[in-house]
Amino acid sequence: MFVVSCLTSCCASCACGACMSAASAISRRSARLAYCGLFALSLILSWILREVAAPLLEKIPWINTFAHTPSKEWFQTNAVLRVSLGNFLFFATFAAMMIGVKDQNDKRDAWHHGGWVLKVVVWAVLIALMFFLPNIVITIYETLSKFGSGFFLLVQVVILLDFLTSWNDSWVEKDEQKWYIALLVVSVVCYLATFAFSGVLFVWFNPSGHDCGLNIFFIVMTLILAFAFAIIALHPQVNGSLMPASVISIYCAYLCYSGLSSEPTDYECNGLHRHSKQVSTGTLVLGMLTTVLSVVYSAVRAGSSTAFLSPPSSPKAGATSPLLEGDTEAGKSSKDAEPKPVSYSYTFFHLIFALASMYSAMLLTGWTSSTSDSSELIDVGWTTVWVRICTEWATAALYIWTLVAPLIFPDREF
């Protein structure tokens, strides 16, 4: 246990040192990116321990409690889940602490933006303590992580829709022909890429001589959804645009590919089985990159969106009153100054990071399918396939809902 504690402490202390050296320079605005940096460090630590901690965990009596030592994959999964649990508890605790923060006079506002030296120390200690917990706690967290990851995937879709809406609106508001042409070009390119990529999927995952009806169904459904997006978005009664529909189409095609490429290597319809190691690693890297981009975008967007992550009391949530000026008139006491509301929900902000911690653990462990024949093949198995495919369908459902909801509920604002 001493060796594992040293290894974990070493990795965590390196992260602490890097964060502490810059802690004094962190401002209110850059605090959001500092949380992103802490989350990124947890991913790096998880990846390192997944590769090197398995032999060390075998020697810990309260972890290796089995009569027969389990496989290396089990210890790899266990190490990743313990780091993920520590990271989850850190952000979940902050999410709970920030419930009800409405203005910057609340002392918890300072907790959210400051105290970075203490935060990094607490984060490192939490991760180290996770290696002293019994296996039953990790097993429970593993089960909860599957549900939490599903919620994060839905949040990821909402983030994508928010980004596409902002992108489309920013170009339309310029009201210049070149920007309308740019929107058309992006739409055409994305749709052509969607159809071309779907054709490639037919070749890769429908090899001749095999009955691959399930794969064909997944691919055909992706094409049907792409057409449906365009038809609904261009309907006269729908206030939609072709550009978001085209980007969502290619994203759905990517999700379909990631699901099909996660099929077991011995499945006859998986045409990439000869390159399973490269495909598994590539899918993992893309998944981790998407996760990091989602949390970074949510952090940056939180301070500028008119609705995204914004609490009802925030001016950015649609309040008509302008932001209060930072300087108060001379002679007025601080009690007479009206408190300045926060610009986004701190609770939801930390909740995104907590759910992302769960999701990243599932990515690194292949949704804890440690029965794989090879530890090199992560993120592979039927569980992963259905998670990705269901995420594609949920993405389609949410996007279609954003288009038709104003027609169904005309009295509500969307």
Automatic annotation (TrEMBL):
GO cellular component terms, A-Z: membrane
Region (Disordered): 306-339
Signal peptide: 1-17
Transmembrane segments: 79-100, 120-141, 148-167, 179-204, 216-235, 281-300, 344-364, 385-409
Lineage: superkingdom: Eukaryota
Keyword Transmembrane helix assigned: yes
Pfam families on file: Serinc
Keywords: Membrane, Signal, Transmembrane, Transmembrane helix
Presence of keyword Cytoplasm: no
Cellular location(s): Membrane
Comp. bias regions, Basic and acidic residues: 329-339
Membrane topology term: Multi-pass membrane protein
Similarity field: Belongs to the TDE1 family.
Name used for this protein in its record: Serine incorporator 3
Organism: Rhynchospora pubera
Source species taxonomy: Eukaryota, Viridiplantae, Streptophyta, Embryophyta, Tracheophyta
